[in-house]
Amino acid sequence: MKYKQSKKTIPGAFNHKLILPVIVFFMAHQLLNAQTVSAVTDRNKILIGEQVVLQLKAEDINTTKTLLDSWFTVFDSSNHIQIIKREPVDTVNINGQTTYLQKITLTSFDSGRWKLAPLKITFTDRVTGKQSSLQTDSVALEVIPVNVSVLKNYHDVKDILDVPVQTNYMLYAIITAVVIILAIISWLIIKRFKNKKPAAAKPVYKGTALEHAIQQIKELQQQNLSGKVNIKLFYTKLTTICRDYFEDQLQVRSSQATSDELMILLGVYLQDEKMRTAFYQLLRLSDAVKFAKYLPGEEQNKQAIDTAIASLTHVDGLVKQIKQHA
Question: 67 forms bridges with which residues in the sheet?
Fold first, then answer.
């Protein structure tokens, strides 16, 4: 006679199948808690028109596992607080952990107690693709009016005094002479340009923003600006076309951003590592040509054209997918 051994679950026994999920959850929880963000001003009380420095910081970011999608958004003017100066975003790497830091100079011309809403920053897990966000506390700023009564050099407004008016004939003569001279100059300018043929109208581009940008790049390539004399102008125009497209399509401040800031702004659209690296190399090459007087070869110039077109096409395709899903 054969006996079938029955499997019973012993109360309190540990299920080994739960080990992996628990470890993954614990590691993700520890990674999220390691990342901290802050928004702090060097003082919270100022006089009207005085300046205060706002420091934005994101600490302990593991860039090998976490991708920074978007930086804090601080508007030029918000709730009676204006931005005077923005410094670029600095990065510091300590023991594999990256800290991002930016300083913004603020002021206000309205007395009262004003607040900046909490600022948000977003990340993407490079392995799972899952997005997460962290936000700072709100920033309060008290603006105090100036008491001018205690100022030593302050002089109050006095009553208006009546002063006898004397006719200045010399002033009238000078004004008349200036008017006559301006009339003669205007007549000569009109006569000079009257018979001049009107300049040819600039071509009007039709189609999408991507088609317009690619058309501009091809026209730039046909102008043969990649010679040693015009190499700086060539790379300046090439990167300007790309920045104008990003600002028009993505609504980001790409024209004022540095190369590193622009890559942060485009992080969510250039997630492909090869595409992101190629475009960043194009920006670095352009900076080297403009500021370090570097002279690239003809093959590098052709590759720069191809990289610009491929990057714009990649971003445009992603924008269309986002609009379709929306």
Answer: 124
pLDDT digits (tens, 9 = 90+) for 36-89: 899 999 999 898 888 999 999 888 888 888 888 889 988 888 888 989 899 998
Beta bridge partners of 61: 98
| pLDDT tens digits, 45-55 | 898 888 999 99
Helix (H) and strand (E) counts in the chain:
7, 12
Alpha-carbon distances, residue 131 vs 28, 32, 126 (angstroms): 12, 11, 9
Q: Dihedrals φ, ψ of 306, to 5°?
A: -65, -40
Within 10 Å of residue 267's Cβ, how many Cβ atoms? 18
Report which of 119, 144, 146, 123 is spatially closest to residue 54, judged by C-alpha positions.
Answer: 119
Note the residue count of the chain: 326
The tokens describing 26, both together, are 């614990």
- Identity of the amino acid at 119: L
Range of the domain at 80: 36-146
| 214, 142: one domain | no
Contact 139, 54 (CB under 8 A): yes
Whole-angstrom Cα distance, residue 33 to residue 56?
18
What is the distance between the alpha carbons of residues 94 and 160, in angstroms, rounded to a whole number?
A: 67
Could you give the CA distance from residue 248 to residue 209 in angstroms, rounded to a whole number? 8
Residue 255 belongs to a domain: yes
